[in-house]
Specification:
alpha+beta; Beta-Lactamase; five-stranded antiparallel β-sheet; five-stranded mixed β-sheet; 12 strands; 53% helix; elongated
């Protein structure tokens, strides 16, 4: 880059990155350097310089840079005694390239002018709203909200956003769609954008999943520390109490109060069982992996629940599974995970008011995973409940401990795999277990 080009880049950056209300005129010395340069060459230099300045900037700042840079170019050409119409095709090409950059950003972008009318919208934003770009340009946000062609949930989210903008002028909003996607909406108001209002929408679903996984791991780490203390402080006294109750049981029987001893012993055993689950959830033993046939251990688990399923008028179906499909796992631990999930499915179907209960177990090879799915046609659950299923102590059952699925989550993680759940109210639930092949 020549000295003149570097000076142009510096002057352009100084212009577009400062407060737009105080934009300075181009330096006369700089315009003199370009007096003999063609308009086409200046426009091309301007395009390259603007791209360098806007590269890596957030959408709202990039839009401000593009907008201000066009004003700078117009002023600069005028001070060079060159007509802005000397190379109209170059200017049109430059404007189209700027718009092309905005069109292909991964965020949805909409720009409203001082009158509140939509002057620019990119393809991503039009796709989110559900209407073609041409059907939106020129309308106000309130008009788009009233358009019956826009899905009801989108209109509802837009109404909430509109109220937040008008009443509180809050810059950030988070929206969760019916498909479980998380959208971050950023609003840049007119005082920051020369009278215009910019709305950008970014899909942050993956970031949310990563954040949720990190949060889950933090909770399990804390649970591990608590578990060790509980085991030491509670289990030993319970053992002593149980011993003394057994010692006193003959005396209580003589007094006709033997049921008291039985109740105490049952409650102590139940407490010990909870503590045992608690310890397993905090630190399952390292998996001792051995190659096993997938269809064989699925069949074993199915046989365990066959009678329970019949009792609740539920059919367990195992889809066609490749008889040679193998996976290296700790068989005892993975059976425990599958039993937890199938047990939950049977209970969900038993509580359902729908048609005959059905649970389907499938296993397929989807490189690099062996994927096992357990689906039921129960009542399902909302997104909030589904997102908390693997939290320790979270349960929807009256007699549940909320530890079974958190244990399952840790076991699958220790195997280098992943486990997730998809569910919707009245549409059943599907658990997916992915294990490395």
């Amino acid at each position: 880059m020549s000295i003149a080009e570097e000076l142009y880049l510096e002057a352009l950056a100084d212009y577009v990155l400062q407060d737009h209300s105080q934009n300075k005129m181009p330096d006369p010395g700089l315009t003199e350097r370009f007096s003999s340069v063609s308009v086409t060459d200046i426009v091309e230099l301007h395009r390259v310089s603007t791209r360098r300045i806007a590269e890596g900037k957030p959408e709202d700042q990039a839009l401000r840079i593009y907008d201000a840079s066009l004003r700078f170019l117009t002023d600069f050409l005028a001070h060079c005694n060159k007509s802005v119409y000397a190379a109209p095709s170059s200017l049109v090409l430059l404007k189209n390239k700027y718009e092309n950059v905005l069109q292909h950003m991964d965020s949805g972008i909409a720009l409203f002018n001082e009158s509140g009318r939509l002057t620019f919208i990119n393809m991503n934003m039009a796709r989110l709203i559900g209407l073609p770009r041409k059907a939106l340009i020129g309308f106000r946000l309130i008009d788009v909200m009233r358009n019956r062609m826009v899905p009801r949930k989108i209109r509802k989210s837009m109404l909430h956003l509109y109220r937040e903008m008008v009443d509180y002028r809050t810059p950030y909003h988070e929206i969760t769609t019916g498909q479980g996607r998380h959208l971050l909406v950023t609003v840049t108001y007119e005082n920051e954008l020369d009278g215009d209002v910019l709305i950008s929408v970014k899909d942050v679903t993956e970031y949310k999943r990563i954040e949720q996984a990190a949060y889950q791991n933090d909770k399990l780490a804390i649970l591990g520390k608590i578990s060790a203390a509980i085991a030491h402080e509670i289990r030993n006294p319970l053992t002593s109490i149980r011993g003394f109750v057994q010692f006193l049981k003959p005396e209580l029987t003589r007094m006709g109060k033997h049921e008291y001893a039985d109740i105490i012993l049952d409650e102590i055993d139940r407490a010990n069982s909870i503590i045992h689950e608690f310890l397993n959830s905090s630190k399952p033993t390292a998996p001792l992996k051995k190659p096993v046939l997938v269809h064989a251990f699925i069949k074993d688990v199915m046989l365990l629940f066959e009678s329970d399923a019949l009792l609740h008028q539920c059919r367990i179906e195992v889809g066609p599974i490749d008889q040679t499909l193998t996976v290296a796992v700790d068989l005892k631990q993975v059976k425990q995970v599958l039993m937890n999930i199938v047990k939950n499915a049977v209970e969900a179907v038993a509580q359902s008011r729908g048609p005959e209960g059905r649970i389907q177990i499938l296993a397929v090879h989807e490189a690099p995973w062996i994927k096992i799915t357990v689906s039921d046609n129960g009542d399902g659950m909302d997104a909030d409940t589904a997102s908390r299923l693997f939290d320790p102590f979270f349960t929807t059952k009256e007699a549940g401990t909320g530890l079974g699925l958190s244990v399952s989550y840790r076991i699958i993680k220790n195997h280098g795999g992943k486990i997730d759940v998809r569910s919707r109210p009245a549409q059943g639930t599907t658990f997916s277990i992915c294990l490395p092949e």
